[in-house]
Design a protein that fits this description.
By secondary structure, this protein is an alpha+beta fold. It has two domains: about 5-85, Translation Initiation Factor IF3; about 100-130, no CATH class. Helix content is about 30%, strand content about 25%. The protein has a four-stranded mixed sheet, with helices on both faces. Strands 5-6 form a two-stranded antiparallel ribbon. Strands 7-8 form a two-stranded antiparallel sheet. A hairpin with a 5-residue loop joins strand 7 (about 130) and strand 8 (about 140). The termini are far apart.
């Protein structure tokens, strides 16, 4: 993956405030460390990696290996810090059914009154602010009370 100098400069500026998320220790670049760096790149996109050890050539080799194996772009190598970038993958969440935003399908199972017959099973669509009680009825969530300090009513 190649970055233009302008993109690299913008990413360096963005990475300045970041803390290292992965640290490579004495064992070097192990499979578990690579997996953790891959997970961090998926979650954040831009990460810092700290490599312990005084051998500069080893750090450069680790940097190049990470970029090659993980498909990341090298942003900056300064001292023992490596900055890597890989665009985050957009994950699309699929909704069940053709309900509008905030609607979800809930299955309500109520036991029979006598206890000898089959329970009644009903599927119901409820809104985001509704919940199902233990008895199987649907209740709307209570509205939150506003703070008198924030609304200005508490002043005299």
């Amino acid at each position: 993956m190649k970055l233009t100098p302008a993109e690299r400069s913008a990413l360096r500026a963005e990475a300045h405030a970041l803390n290292p998320v992965v640290m490579v220790g004495e064992a070097g670049l192990t499979a578990s460390v690579e997996k953790e760096i891959d997970n961090s790149l998926n979650a954040h996109g831009l990460i810092k990696v700290r490599v312990f050890g005084d051998d500069r050539e080893a750090r450069v080799a680790i940097y190049e290996t990470l970029c090659e194996k993980l498909g990341a772009a090298p942003v900056q190598h300064i001292g023992k810090l490596l900055v890597l970038y890989r665009p985050k993958k957009e994950v699309l969440k699929e909704r069940s059914g053709k309900a509008g935003k905030g609607m979800r399908e809930v299955t309500i199972v109520k036991p029979s009154p006598s206890g000898t017959k089959r329970p009644s099973v009903t599927k119901v669509m409820i809104k985001g602010n509704e919940r199902v009680t233990e008895g199987g009825s649907i209740k709307r969530a209570k509205t939150r009370q506003a703070s008198p300090k924030k609304s200005g009513l508490g002043k005299s």
